[in-house]
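Form 12-C: Joint structure prediction
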Amino acid sequence: MKKFVFFGGKGGVGKTTVSSAYGLKSANAGLKTLVVSTDPAHSTSDVFDQQFGDEPAPVDGHDNLWAMEIDPEQEVENHLMEIKRAMGDQVSPGMVNAIDRQIEMSHQTPGAHESALFDRFVDVMQNSEEYDRVVFDTSPTGGTLRLLSLPEFLEGWIERLLHKRKRSIDLYEKAAIGGREPRRMAEGDPIIARLQERKEMFEFAGEVLRTESAYFLVLNPDELSIRETSRAVEELTEYDLAVSGLVINKVTPEPDADESGRGAKYLRDRCRTERERIEHIRDAFEEPVVAVIESRVEEVKGSLLADVAKGLDVAVETTPKSAG
Amino acid sequence: MSLADKIETYRRHVSEWLRGLYHGMISHPAYELIEKEAEDVEDEFMLACFPDVFGVPSPISYYTAELLPYLTDEFEAWERRMWDRESLIERKGQQYHF
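Section 2 - Result
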């Protein structure tokens, strides 16, 4: 099993439940596990009945289990402050105003949240040596796919910027005929250094997402989430990210045979259509169905979570580093 | 003033004139040309970094904002140049001294 495990899917299918359950299963198997929620509407806190923040915190009552919730709003703010601080060091106060507007603006673009989330996400992956397994509870399909496609896209962009910057500096150096001081020099250019740094970060992210990560999609036995899942599989494959399995959640439980009231009839009908859909899922997708989870009357948390965890047929092996 | 001194002064003048002539006709326009080209490439770079200045949303401006503290002077000059520039011909025309 890969070190980073992602659970994605349509909104409301139970990604948080499934990823928390998987996190618990890994932790119970002796792996130091971190559950990371990247969905802006966090619900990991609700599952474990404990408030989590932007830093990993141990989950009460469970050994080997940590959890955190990424807050993009805070990330954007931090990034903004960091740039302003650098600006204070570099630039005289008189010049700051004109540039300030631009910096503020760039932090209000629609992409800022995404970028902040992505940064934090990469940061978590980079600093995850102490964990054997990191489980990502992602935001609904669209957002996650965008996030996972970012490295490739941004890498290309940064590459072009780097190329342009190098070319202009090269020209400046050539313009310095006869021992004149060139207006800019490649050596020690902070822009090139910065861009290079960013490029390496995107390369790292792309590499980890392709080689060290496993993707699971959670779906319910209904038309909409089946269709969305098939689109998600397609897109992920396009980015070279292979889906390892599907988790079917919220399956209606069958009534006992001797029950014949209106409720039982309704359930029986429902079960029949769901059985068909589950069959369809098994046929139509190449990816294996790793778990079929019945819906529960209560919210899935506490001991119920452990129950769900047992039902997950997702491998947890890989020897725990902490034991070795 | 001796003859040798006179010749010496004369030679100094001539060489200064020659250097000036060479600088004005050959070397100055040459590096000016290259420098202009460098500026043009830099403008392209700035435009690729900050298209949102002109209302074009950029998915990467969150990252390029990090460069601004180091680009303050360039950024201001660039913004001014871009708003002022009337046409490419006008800009290229500046390179020729008639």
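Section 3 - Comments
Chain A touches chain B through 46 residues (CB under 8 Å). Residues 227 and 286 of chain A are 14 Å apart (CA to CA).
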